[in-house]
């Protein structure tokens, strides 16, 4: 889900609850932020992705990638990503994964998209900013290190990538970055994402239209 100018976001829910004033008051008092809540690991596997850019002196963008330490994809490059651990929130998960794999402390700025495969695999991609730390250069079980690569190199696959499935996420991140600059004061945000009553199953869809 990328940001667009002059947007209108609608959330369609199907929660089978009454809409009287008492229920509204209960919902309001129980409102929590889904992204900021520990997730139920029994519902599936939750993957988090951190997209981090930096702008070079010539104006071109570079993307932070991590070098894999796993045997099946050893020394290949990929975006900072991994599973949310038990007891973590989704935001905690992406912050931890970026730190472990790249050495940088980050702050998630915006949710770029949510991908679903089957009935139990969810990937949350975030646009993140560096707020501290140093680039990882010492290998461990999490990664062999991290480095910056030009977007052109990555898209042209001149780097030995673990997979190219994240290229579409890069496109969303670049679009968001452009719109953020162009419509800084009018850009609608997805974070935080509210969800009503704790434990209530809600089916929702976010529809984004451009005027």
UniProtKB/TrEMBL annotation:
Pfam families: NUDIX
Domain (Nudix hydrolase) ranges: 44-174
Gene from which this protein is expressed: Bma-ndx-1
Family: Belongs to the Nudix hydrolase family.
SUPFAM superfamilies listed in its UniProt record: Nudix
Protein name: Nudix hydrolase domain-containing protein
Region of interest (Disordered), residue spans: 1-28
Annotated source species: Brugia malayi (Filarial nematode worm)
Keywords, in A-Z order: Hydrolase
InterPro entries listed in its UniProt record: Nudix_hydrolase, NUDIX_hydrolase-like_dom_sf, NUDIX_hydrolase_CS, NUDIX_hydrolase_dom
GO MF annotations, alphabetized: 8-oxo-dGDP phosphatase activity; 8-oxo-GDP phosphatase activity
Source domain of life: Eukaryota
